[in-house]
Structure formats: C-alpha cells, structure tokens
Amino acid sequence: MNLRSVLTVALTLAAPALHAQGADEGTLLIRRGGRDIGSENYRVTGGDAGLRITATASYAGSRPPTELSGSVERTAQGSELAFQLEHRGTAGSQVYAVQKRNRLTIRRVERGGEQASEAPGSSSTVLLADSVFALYLQLVPLASDAGRPVTAVFPLTGRRISFTAQRLPTAPAGGALIRLAGGLEGELVLGNRGELLRISLPALGLEAVRKRE
Question: Mean of the pLDDT values across residues 23-41?
C-alpha cells in the first residue's frame, strides 16, 4: 500500500539571493529514525532576474495515492508573493496565497466549499508546505550571521510560525550551516558550492540527506 505525495514548486527570489544560494540539483533521501520513507528530486536555477526552485517529493504509506503540485513566486523586494498548491486525492483541494505589500490573502478551495482569510505579510515571510524539503531553501538568502527573524506561513493549514534563521560557517567542508531556532527548529547544511547536503526538522522527526551520485 502506497501513499504518494508530489509537489512541484516554482520560486522567484531577488537577484542578490543568487550569491547566497547557487544553482543546484539532485535527489534527497527522506528518513525517519534512520529509515528511508521517501525521496525528493529538486532543481535550483538562477540568473540576474532571480532564483527558481522546483521539487517533487514521494513518500511510502497507505492508499489512496495523494498528489500535491504547487508554485511560489516572489518579487525582488519580497513584498509580493504568489503561492499555489493543488492536492489531488479523495479529498482534493486547491490552496492559493497572494501577498501584496504587507497583506497576505489565503484561499482554500475544497469539494463542497471555499474559504478565504487574510493575515499580515512582510518581506521576511516565506510560504512552506510540510514535508517538502526544497522549499526551505527560501531561507538561505534570508539568513544572517546574527540571526534574522522570519515568519513561515503554511497556506495548506494556515499555520504561522516565527523563528530566526542564522548563517554559521562550517569546517572543514567550507560550506555553510543555516540554523533555525524558535518556533521552527532545524538545520540546512550547504556544501562549498552552495549545494544542499542535508535538512533536518526534529519536530517532524524527519531529515533529508543528499543522495550520493
């Protein structure tokens, strides 16, 4: 019996982010308690216009199969964002989130109904989905040496979490460590070329480790 979750994400960020998160692509092995429970293929591309991230995650589980596909776009200043997530399965649903300046509007469309809500937004807001690890790369250009306050919004559930993203040097690999602390705790480990090596999220009991080629 299998549960399959697929998320495709398109993300456009400010041009300066390219210096913090370089081009990268690969496969992550998703683990719980040291056991592989899924995998995620992702790709990061960029240029002067911005940064784009795409990801597809698949998990083992129970039937019926479930598929999620979505996208995120962000203006250079981060004041305008657009998010779309489509959940296919027995309880199919679509989620849309749009941020204009400092106002975030979330609309959820499900079988038999539709709901809309508004919440504050800012240039340090990121839009995430549970268990889709490549989305956390949005935090790389936002992280600072002192630890920058960030707000994560999960449009599928409406959950809102405040935390800090701190960039630390790593040795001897010469890469970087992004440490998340506060309402959301975890780590993103980058290699010396900015490639993603590992993401761990202790609250979910999950980690994603780059598959060796």
Answer: 91
